[in-house]
Amino acid sequence: MIPFRPTRSPHRSRAALRRRLAFGFTMIELMVVVGVIAVLALLAAPSISDRIVRDQIVEASKLIEFAKPPIQVSWTTLATMPVDNDAAGLPPATSIVNNVVSSVAIESGAIQVTFGNRANAALRGKILSFRPGVVEASPIVPITWVCGHASPPVPMNARGLDKTSVPDRYLPLNCRAAAPGP
User: Fold this and answer.
1) What percent helix, strand, coil does the chain show, rounded to 5?
2) Is the CB of residue 129 less than 8 Å from the CB of residue 144?
3) Number of domains the chain contains
4) Residue 36 included in any domain
5) DSSP 3-state assignment of 21?
6) How far apart are CA 80 and CA 90, in angstroms?
């Protein structure tokens, strides 16, 4: 024989359900949601700051465009590189500035960009080099600009010193040293 169990009234279960829905979320449920959002924000924060630094490097690289033609002319006509800003016909290094750059210096043909002013703290005081890649036997061949630790294409040679002190993680891919092959 099956024992008798009184059934609940359908009206009671509906009333209990309505009361439960009227209260909303419990405190524990809300804390779990806040915890998940906090973890996601912590994961995203470093990538956002790295992106800001990379954008500032791109902004700085646009500033040097006006310094390239005098170097190209010097190489094409004299087969030499200007030793400094004055020899390239450019203003003093500390006069070439923008929001993130405190100076742009020409040193033996290489363009040395020093970060400052409103640059991110990770860049302030650091240098990014742009070296002219040339074909020694053929000055008529246009210069290829080599950024940072990158190597010039074969058969070109990079002129000037690579004084890049910006950490590799912030450098654009074309400014990093090539990984050794297999």
Assistant:
1) 40, 15, 45
2) no
3) 1
4) no
5) helix
6) 16
Q: How far apart are CA 88 and CA 67, in angstroms?
A: 8
Contact criterion met (CB below 8 Å) for 105 and 84: yes
On whether the CB atoms of residues 64 and 104 are closer than 8 A, the answer is yes
Locate 158 and state its tokens: 């990079």
**Does residue 72 form part of some domain?**
yes
User: Quick check: is 15 in a domain?
Assistant: no
Q: How far apart are the first and last CA of the chain?
A: 80
Q: Residues 6 or more apart from 119 whose CB is under 8 A from it?
A: 56, 99, 100, 101, 102
Return the CATH number at 141: 3.30.700.10
For 91-114, how does the pLDDT look when each residue is reduced to its tens digit (9 = 90+)?
999 999 999 999 999 999 999 999
- What tokens does 76 get? 């094409």
Domain limits at 88? 52-175
pLDDT in tens, 67-81: 999 999 999 999 999
